[in-house]
Fold each of these.
Amino acid sequence: MAKLSRLTEMVGQNSEHVHSMTDFLTSSGINNTPLHRHQNANSMVKYVAPVISLLCLVLQNQNQEHYFMPLPTQTQEAIHNLKTSLISGNNVSTYIHKALTNLWTEKWNKREDNPVPCPMEQTLALLILDKNGGHQEPHNVTGYIAKLEYCI
């Protein structure tokens, strides 16, 4: 833990030195750094359900009758490109990755007319609803958050 704290303090001071010290984190050859494709397909199957829910929510968002969330223009374009690729069957995984990267790197600012602007937060809120309309206990929610974080 001390080594990780030391590395965190050094970020921005000497990136080449920090990079050489963090090589041990990817010594297995698998790069699971944020916003990169995961290379272990077997474990990915266990984690994608909340991400699929997120994509379904933003794809459905184009049909404003049921559920609407305002999205920035760049995010709308990424979602539109994903929808087009899903219809054509061309480069689907590339456009999924681009849409998710866009969703996960956007800075979502709360507004009076949109107090929960982040589609990921909205997805989590919907996923943790119980059949009785209440929310699940916190220990049941952690799994959704962990799965989303793993996929990011």
Amino acid sequence: MSEVYASYVGAQASRIPLKDTLIGYDQLEHEPWYPRGYTTWTPELKEEMLHFFEKCNYPYRSYEEIPFKDPLRSEIRRFFISLDAYMESPHPVIPEKDLLYGATDIEFAEYLKRVKRKSFETTWHVENFEYPDWWNDVPAYRIHDIGDIFNYSYLPFFKMEVDDYLYGDLDLTYKEDWIATFKSTLLRMLPDREDF
């Protein structure tokens, strides 16, 4: 193979010839790996990944045979390398098996974001005026550094089946006097301006 995907620039994939660089080149199997690509998540895929992960042990970066096709194969390889680095860091607080199990779930990135926020705020004794609905559903860890929580960006990249951007084009129903009330309230709150 003479070329390999090396990076994304905007929405375009850049190609770098293999003879010029080893970026994106898996030296173990001599196949190119792809920088980031999503895989559509399904419950069946989760089960397949769990079955594979159950057979894996530390150090994960040494696994040559990853029985999935790209881009998932490359995503798992990145995850394994990141998991090893995390486990070798000074204060990893999330159990290794929790990360392996969670990496198969499409909602796990959101969970890690919440754990990171709660751990940071409880470690530094932040007092909130109000707590989010999920606050009691996630653990808090005493952390020394924000990196003590595994970074969700190293998880396999699953396609989200969310089309919430479509809601931006919905027609809104409102009364004209609401706009007038809003504008008059805003003008009372803002300093005097002639150009508004």
Amino acid sequence: MLNTNIHLINKTPYSAIKNEALKVIKNYQDDFLKHDRKILQKRDCKECILIVHSNGSYLLTINDLYQALETYKNDLYGSTGYLFGSVKNSELVHKRYEAQIITIEHAQKEHKTAKMFFYNCNTWKEISSETALYTVTGFYARVSQQQKEAA
């Protein structure tokens, strides 16, 4: 685990973490180099967890939960296409949270050499899977409180 934070002095979140991520990702680098890059190159990138392993990456963002909240607020009683079906908008925030938890648990179980990094809008820090689970639960608590206030 890294002993120091990766600071963003004159860098985007993507350029600050790129070298650390590519040390781990051996196959399917396009997942990180193309898809995650689009989100991480923004200077206004919000809090997120990046999981890198030998066969790619997963990017878990608080924005996913906020987007679900916006959908909920705009159409309380509707439903939204989600994965292979649909979900009631009132359940969307929770379903996105569940998907993030499952992703962390999958990486922990199936990718023993995976590394997890947390971005707090200023720096990257390598974290344990337990800290990742705790962090995602914190994301969910903040967003679900806003969901309750919107109801």
Amino acid sequence: MSFFKVLPFLFGIACIDNIDKAGKRDVSTGSDSPTQGNWQFTGEASWSVDTCNMAEQMDFDSADPMVLSLTDSGFTIDEALDCTMSGSDFTCTGDDLNVSSDMSENGMDAILDMNQQISGRFDNSTSMLFVASLAYVCEGPDCDALNQMMEELVFPCESLWSINLEYVGETDD
């Protein structure tokens, strides 16, 4: 399962143009794009803000490799993120990055909004810096009760982190 589809649920919120044979593409700036295939988190994440306690919740070491596939404007990651490149920099969009959860199904008068931004840059065709920001905001009279249920989170909160990824090989398909 995609790391990015799982991310909103890490805290229990679920209840609530030319490609060559090497897999490199010449982008508009003339630079090499990333190598298509499997990419893995490497090293430790660096947290500049973490009021959502993400560092305690996320386990990058056990994450499955992500599949990066080249597109005309950049690449996709696990078919969940559509990333656009500008030189060696990229920004990503995806349906699971901004989610609003109506907690009325759980008997609570609260709306929980999760907003993420994903960006980064490539050092070369096999190494990237991945940057993510995450913010949770709760609106409604039952947000205090929701805060007590969540234990790890106090709304509103935000986390900003970065980590390196490296190309680890071709996909098996």
